[in-house]
Amino acid sequence: MSQNIPLFSMLSCFLLLWCFTAAQNFGRAQLVYEWKWIDFDWPSAEDERNARSNGSFVPERNLFSGIKEYKGTIYISIPRRKWTAGQPVSLARVVTIDGLAKLRPYPNWTAQQQGDCAALQFVQSMEIDPNTGFMYVIDTGRVGLSLNLCPAKLVVYDLKIDTQIDLYEFPTHVVSNTSNFLNDIVLDYVNGQVRYAYITDTNDASIVVYDFHSRSSWKLKDPTMGMESNGTVITISGIQYNFPIALNGIAMSPDFKYVYYCSLGGYNLYQIPTETLRNPGTSNSNGIRLLGKKVSQTDGMIHGSKFLYYGAVGLNAVYFWNATKDMAEMNVGIGVVTLNTQTELIRNDSKLQWPSTFAFDDQGWLWIACNRLQVFWNADNPPDDGEAYMRIWKVYVNETGYLYQAHKIEQGKSDGSTLTSSTTDVDCFVFLSVMFLCCLKGYY
Ligand SMILES: *[C@@H]1O[C@H](CO)[C@@H](O)[C@H](O)[C@H]1NC(C)=O
Ligand SMILES: *[C@@H]1O[C@H](CO)[C@@H](O)[C@H](O)[C@H]1NC(C)=O
Ligand SMILES: *[C@@H]1O[C@H](CO)[C@@H](O)[C@H](O)[C@H]1NC(C)=O
Ligand SMILES: *[C@@H]1O[C@H](CO)[C@@H](O)[C@H](O)[C@H]1NC(C)=O
Ligand SMILES: *[C@@H]1O[C@H](CO)[C@@H](O)[C@H](O)[C@H]1NC(C)=O
Ligand SMILES: *[C@@H]1O[C@H](CO)[C@@H](O)[C@H](O)[C@H]1NC(C)=O
Ligand SMILES: *[C@@H]1O[C@H](CO)[C@@H](O)[C@H](O)[C@H]1NC(C)=O
């Protein structure tokens, strides 16, 4: 036992040093979870055995895509996009059971029932408002992009009490019940409250708007939401993959004045004023602006309180746009600036293939879900090549998401725009103190 003490004290001192330096480190990355195939938290071992043998669970058909975080819990979507059976769950949260990370259906198993229109059918993504603890989930209502089971809908859960609090079915003239692919969602605050949701419909190449006040929806379609003739081939680690996929990634500026969007099959990044989207009568595309070409094609995007982060799928990397720098250099405002400075945040050719979507926590970390979609999508049966398909990373960026304290910003009570480093500082202070004691104990 006494032999362990020097080791422990050395480790403590090392951790002390690490904690001290790491807290300062923009871009520090950590691979948090890794799965080859998803593992669910089944009610019983017998249920799992039955589901595997009767075909309602085929592990290699389950690939996660959406990620969001709330109070230390990670939420994940598992799109039922490619197959019509074998995917028992479309929305889940990560739980740790006997040291293993598993997915527990959210809010429960019943809410995942394929064919039950009160339940979730095919969830590609969701958004969480950290100010209220509400999660906004988009559901295409379709399975395998071929079984047209239900109307598309937006479902809201209160994560604080794990209860569904709202459900809105889209009329078919806004979101088709036979061809939509609702892909990603951002929220728009007005007067301290969530007023609109903006949702990309990939198959319709349009942005769907939902107004929570009037409980009505409309859509805006524009040629910039389609794919680009030269943009649909994505080269990843030397192999070419064809992704003729339109509008996909969407992000909201922290002042709620602009929405950013891009197609997967393309390089262009566009900006549209929320003013245009908020107007139900609008059929024109007022203020849509090409910002420039990204370094690569992008699936998901997210805006923090400072930067716009986006996947660079062909580079196995995540980049960010420091608009402040470009605005200063061009001496123009955000409504005029173009995309010039693109900075690599993280790249890892083997462990960061296909950065899919992003989340912020309230501690300064950006979370990244990546899933090697290029392999999964292009194989009839995704091969077991020994490599994990799904990984979750977090990268320290010292900022929070665009929604952080939005209720205060819009009410003008606080600027709320930057992360106070207090939480990190307090954590580190406690940690340092404990480690200091451990060091002392080790030495004497
Ligand atoms: C985080 O950002 C704030 C301002 O936004 C800055 O004062 C602070 O030094 C930064 N902290 C780290 C660890 O980079
Ligand atoms: C397959 O087994 C699961 C788990 O017991 C069960 O919930 C489901 O209803 C079964 N499906 C069919 C088609 O029998
Ligand atoms: C799709 O919408 C049409 C009307 O727009 C309706 O007749 C049909 O029943 C709907 N199908 C489903 C599966 O909801
Ligand atoms: C599962 O969640 C749904 C939707 O929130 C709810 O209506 C239902 O009562 C829940 N079922 C159980 C068994 O908790
Ligand atoms: C597509 O690529 C070709 C060859 O590189 C180029 O000549 C052409 O201008 C490109 N078209 C567009 C729309 O970018
Ligand atoms: C962003 O740009 C500003 C203004 O040029 C600069 O001060 C800051 O260091 C940049 N931040 C990063 C992380 O590149
Ligand atoms: C990629 O990530 C893994 C896991 O964190 C790490 O071991 C490896 O060094 C990284 N590779 C590069 C080139 O950074």
UniProtKB/TrEMBL annotation:
Locations listed in the record: Secreted
Signal peptide location: 1-23
Primary location group: secreted
Keywords: Secreted, Signal
One Pfam short name: MRJP
Entry's Gene Ontology cellular component terms: extracellular region
Similarity field: Belongs to the major royal jelly protein family.
Name under which the protein is recorded: Uncharacterized protein
Organism: Candidula unifasciata
